[in-house]
Amino acid sequence: MPKQKEEAQLDFEGQRPGEEVLFVFRRHIIAMRKGFYLLAIPVVITAIPPLIWQSNLELFLLPIGGLALGLILFFYHFMMWYFTIYLVTNQRIRQVTQKGIFGKDVVELRLSKIQNISYNIPGFTGEMLGFGTIVIQTFVGDLVIRYVEHPEKTYNKLQDAVATAIEQQGDNEESIQ
Hints:
- This protein is 42% helix and 28% strand.
- The chain is built from four helices and seven strands.
- The strands form two sheets. The protein has a four-stranded antiparallel β-sheet with strand order 1-2-3-4. Strands 5-6-7 form a three-stranded antiparallel β-sheet.
C-alpha cells in the first residue's frame, strides 16, 4: 500500500506556483490576556451594586448586561488573535496581522534573505506557560514575533526552513552558470 500523506496541502491567497506551506503558527493564548481582562472587569463591576442593594431585584439584571458587554469585547480581541497567523513556506515567511474588524497587514520575508534567528523565553512565566519571543534578523531590519507558542520548536523549524531555502538558492545559482 502506498503511504498516505498525513497533512492536506494548505493553500492561501497569494501563493506562488511551486510554493509549499511547511507549517503555520500563531501567537500563544497569553497574547489575548487583555481580552480576558475586558471580559472579567465589566462582570465584576456590574456585580457590585446587586451585592450592596440586595433588596432591589432589578439590579440583579445588571451583571447580565456586564457579561454581554464583556463577551463583545472579548470576542473582538479573540478575532484579532485568531486571524493573526504566520505562514512559513519553502520560499518565505508571511505574517498576516488582523487590524480591526476589516483591516489586515501582511509582511513577507524571503527565507534566503534571513541572516539570523534567535529566541528568548521570558523567565518563569514563559517557561511554565510555554511562550517566548522569536527575532528574525535580515539586512533590512528585524521581525520580532512576541508570545510565540513553544518558541524552541518554532525556532528549530524556522532554522531548517532557512537552511533548505539557502541550499536550494545555491543549487539554482550553480545550474544557471
